[in-house]
Specification:
CATH class of the largest domain: Alpha Beta
Order of helices and strands: EHEHEHEHEHHHEEEHEHEEHHHHHHHHHH
Largest sheet: 6 strands, antiparallel
CATH superfamily of the largest domain: Response regulator
Number of helices: 19
Distance between the termini: 86 Å
Helix content: 40-55%
Structural class: alpha/beta
Length: 530
Amino acid sequence: MNGKVLIVDDEAGIRDVLKTYMEYEGYNVSTAADGLEAYEKASSETYDVILSDIQMPQMDGLTLVEKVHSVQPDTVIILMTGYASVNTAVEAIQKDVFDYIMKPFQNMYSVVQTIERGIERKRLFQERRTLIDDLRRTNDELTYNRGLLTKRVQEIDTELARRIERMSTLYDISQSISSVTDIEKLMSLIMDRIAGIIKDSVGVFWLVDSERTRLCKVVSIGLKGQDRLPGSIDIHEGEVGETLREGRTRVFKQGVQFSDARLLKLYEQEHISSMIMVPLQYETQLLGVLNILFRNGYEITDDDISMIKAVADQASVSIKNAELFAAQQRMFRETIEALATAIDSRDHYTSGHSFMVTEYSLAIARELDFDEERLELIRVAGLLHDIGKIGISDNILNKPGRLTDEEMEVIKSHPVLGRTIIESIGSLKQVANIVYHHHEHYGGGGYPEGLTGEDIPFESRILQVADIFHALTSDRIYRKAMPLNKAISILKEGQGTVTDPELTQLFLDLVEKGDIPLAVEQAPLVEQGI
């Protein structure tokens, strides 16, 4: 048997699936439906690992940790949860929880790996305790040999520290990359962590291209001649391609002999003496190759191989997650753009209005050095700023003449309706607030709440400048586009009363530099006397 495991979860389905899989892997498995039952079993039997849910009736997982460690201090406890939080994670660490697994599981293999690492840690700590006890007894009996015993203890502690450090590195990598959605940043992070734990190591990440014909270099760390590294390799050529095709780890311990002359020459110049190539694979899909190289005669150990293979497994899952996230983001963007098109299509005079307002707003935001997350917020708010007009009659929206007071009040309701529509999407709460306030006036008198100055959200003030400018410079059902000089004059008149004066000036500077595309063809500013 690989070890004795107690599975604790109030969901019978999860207990049964885990029990079946663990028994298949050779573990002696018991189950409990809640923390109280688990504690009773742990009081009468010794377990290597307890795999427990956090939220349970009778007794929760964190309480169970304290109870079990009071009777079985060496038992490794791993918590499972579908609702992770920073506070829960901190409390778990304080209670000496070995690891933290999110439900639903990425795959059962990763659960088994975590349990194996837990059993290994228990074994190491028990071994260390036994060795230290033996050394103390020996030291009492053989005082003349104290120097040799001290050296032995130091060697053991060093080895234990090394192993623990590597296990910690794996854990840190797993935690660090779980939320990274940029593949290049993800790979750079992994390479930095490996280089920090294995001296004289450098590396290259190769990923399969969309055509699945070539391996493209995505990240290389530590190579002095990185510019000489080929940007891509045919998957049917060389050792890198062979590693991918065969889906197996390759280890070169006694010098590097490469069939790819370009790589062989580069690695000779870099004084590479050994290397490991590990395929990156998610289920049956081959994703790429992790290539770790070593300088200065470094001798690869079995621990090195095991650690790098574990890192590759974690990287594969994260790469796949990043790809899925990117696909989800593309779908989200396309949906938002389709909504903006639907809004604008209700009036051919305002066709493209949402897109132009978005471009103007992004131009201001980039000039202010907004980060990518904040630029995305501006982009979505720009596209959806008029979504509330969906609820307004075409008779009012497309009326060629002056609106009545009653009709104007209907028009003024569109930011309110827009917020209601947008905030129903949990991830767009901030966007909803920006859209809601984009018709406020800096000096007061705007709508819907009549906010003034700095009380108006900053992004709403950006949107307002862009919205007004495009409205002035584009054809409407009730008038033609204004000349650029008149539009600029109106914006200037409204500085500090209607629009934020600083943002307005920034935007006008961009217009003057020609960085703002116009809705309709306009004469140059010089010809208009500006």
